[in-house]
Design brief:
Bound molecules: nicotinamide 8-bromo-adenine dinucleotide phosphate
Structural class: alpha/beta
Strand order of the largest sheet: 3-2-1-4-5-6-7
Family: Belongs to the 6-phosphogluconate dehydrogenase family.
Function: Catalyzes the oxidative decarboxylation of 6-phosphogluconate to ribulose 5-phosphate and CO(2), with concomitant reduction of NADP to NADPH.
Keywords: Gluconate utilization, NADP, Oxidoreductase, Pentose shunt
CATH topology of the largest domain: N-(1-d-carboxylethyl)-l-norvaline Dehydrogenase, domain 2
CATH class of the largest domain: Mainly Alpha
Shape: globular
CATH superfamily of the largest domain: N-(1-d-carboxylethyl)-l-norvaline Dehydrogenase, domain 2
Catalytic activity: 6-phospho-D-gluconate + NADP(+) = D-ribulose 5-phosphate + CO2 + NADPH
Number of domains: 3
GO molecular function: NADP binding; phosphogluconate dehydrogenase (decarboxylating) activity
Radius of gyration: 26 Å
Distance between the termini: 66 Å
């Protein structure tokens, strides 16, 4: 079987758009010799003929592919998540030796990554789940990479990944996130935050259009201006581009000819499902997932539209309305990111990962969809004090939210009075208020729970656990052993 020399320091299995681009990126960096393999050889041949400059070491069989890899053999799998990934893992595990490294660069569910790692670990082969963000362009020019797996495997893998990752302020956007599924977990949270960010931006657009009476092209100018300040980010930048686009067929703004039903591929849902399991409130992400779901219920929307006779009068916007919206957007964004990082902290605790929050913020500064200046502020906050209870208490963000608070409230109130749906803005504000008020009505909920289910409660004035005899004489008893 082994007739060829092992010349490649890295291999890529799966040469559809993501794998091809990642392989080309790897080949373009000095020091890398890239082995490639795809189940259907025609796809490999296509890549070879289109990119002779890459100097790929191509194989028609998996045996030749494995033989072309220098030890420790390192292969990145970029095939369809699920059964395809398992099939390729099986083929590599059969042929690899202890110390070799299998990297799954696809969009795996982190629970699958944990299971795969524990299945493969006894063989002595390293299994690394790596979240790769940035889509096709990122894969080709520099993604943000979130590898999990063992620290030992990262010694080999780290420099290879650093060679192809995006670079932000001189630093490659890759770090060893933690063991087993940590990388795919953090990638999942990245996508959840992306949902929240997009929803908040969409709400800002809706307000500028409905209340601010601006046309899409004018709103594009507003977003372009915002992109030069603290809101600077890839998502704000592309929003301006999308809003400026005119439909060539009708001459209408592009945004007006697109059906207003947003889809999703599932990572936002995963984030919310896992946050629920972890007991972490990620309302910003949840509202964003639900907003897409509501948009995609045309029958319900039409039913309510049929029975609604009149809509509220849209409030008048004054000259500072756009600035108010910018401040509300910023404050809501701080909340969404604070919640996302809370989910990372809770995941790290539950699954035993030593995750450095500041490093995660740094590797998201380039290559990925949520890349933004803003992440520097998060990195600084966690760098200064990794143990803050929430990003909202970090001095920079506390000040930013305080500065924008009045505007945030005006925007949410105006939205409610005008009938503009802002689930992201309003849930973020409610979350902030829930943390900021001295007393929450949770006390009443505890009373209700004790009434119907004897769930007990604690008192504010003395230690212990108590129950009121609601169906008896309503005296209070102390419940021992709690
Ligand atoms: P696809 O997800 O479309 O998968 C196609 C590739 O999987 C082909 O190479 C195909 O081989 C291979 N494959 C399949 Br399908 N079943 C296989 C099996 N049983 N054994 C071996 N190979 C198999 O490719 P993609 O769009 O390039 O995405 C690759 C990965 O990257 C996926 O996990 C995807 O979710 C992820 N992704 C990430 C981003 C991002 O932004 N991070 C974007 C897009 C995709 P064939 O040629 O023989 O059919």
């Amino acid at each position: 079987m082994d007739t060829r020399t092992a010349t490649a320091n890295i291999g890529v299995v799966g040469l559809a758009v993501m794998g091809s681009n990642l392989a080309r990126n790897l080949a373009s960096r000095e020091g890398n010799t890239v082995a490639v393999y795809n189940r259907t050889y025609a796809r490999t041949e296509e890549l070879l003929s289109e990119h002779p400059e890459a100097g790929f070491v191509a194989s028609e069989t998996i045996d030749d592919f494995v033989a072309s890899l220098a030890k420790p053999r390192t292969a990145i799998i970029m095939v369809q998540a699920g059964a395809g990934t398992d099939a390729v893992i099986g083929q590599l595990v059969e042929r690899f030796e202890p110390g070799d490294i299998i990297v799954d660069g696809g969009n795996a569910n982190f629970h699958d990554t944990i299971a795969r790692e524990s299945r493969i670990a006894p063989t002595g082969i390293h299994f690394v789940g790596a979240g790769i963000s940035g889509g096709e362009e990122g894969a080709l020019h520099g993604p943000s990479i979130m590898p999990g797996g063992s620290a030992e495997s990262y010694e080999t893998l780290g420099p290879i990944l650093a060679s192809i990752a995006a670079v932000a302020e001189g630093e490659p956007c890759v770090t060893h996130v933690g063991t087993d599924g940590a990388g795919h977990f953090v990638k999942m949270i990245h996508n959840g935050i992306e949902y929240a960010d997009m929803q908040l931006i969409a709400e800002a657009y809706d307000l500028l259009r409905t209340v601010g009476s601006l046309q899409p092209a004018a709103i594009a100018d507003v977003f372009a201006r915002w992109n030069e300040g603290p809101l600077e980010s890839y998502l704000i930048e592309i929003t301006a581009e999308v809003l400026r686009q005119v439909d060539p067929a009708t001459g209408r703004p592009f945004v007006d000819i697109v059906l207003d039903q947003a889809g999703s591929k599932g990572t936002g849902v995963w984030t919310v499902q896992n946050a629920l399991d972890l007991g972490v409130p990620v309302g910003g992400i949840g509202e964003a997932v639900f907003a897409r779901a509501v948009s995609s219920k045309p029958a319900q929307r039409e039913a309510v539209q049929r029975i609604v006779n009149s809509r509220p009068t849209v409030q008048e916007a004054d000259a500072s309305f756009a600035d108010d919206v910018a401040k509300a957007l910023y404050a809501s964004k701080v909340v969404a990111y604070a919640q996302g990082f809370d989910a990372i902290i809770a995941g790290a605790e539950k699954y035993g990962w030593d995750i450095h929050k500041d490093r995660i913020a740094k590797i998201w500064r380039g290559g990925c969809i949520i890349r933004a200046q803003f992440l520097n502020r998060i990195a600084e906050a966690y760098d200064e004090n990794p143990d803050i209870a929430t990003l909202l208490e970090a001095p920079y963000f506390a000040q930013a939210v305080a500065d924008g608070e009045a505007a945030w409230r005006r925007v949410v109130a105006t939205s409610a009075l005008s009938g503009v749906p802002v689930p992201g803005f309003s849930s973020a504000l409610s979350y902030y208020d829930s943390l900021a008020v001295k007393r929450l009505p949770a006390a009443l909920v505890q009373g209700q729970r004790d009434f119907f289910g004897a769930h007990t409660y604690k008192r504010v004035d003395k230690p212990g656990t108590f129950h009121t005899l609601w169906s008896g004489d309503r005296t209070e008893v102390e419940v021992p052993g709690h």
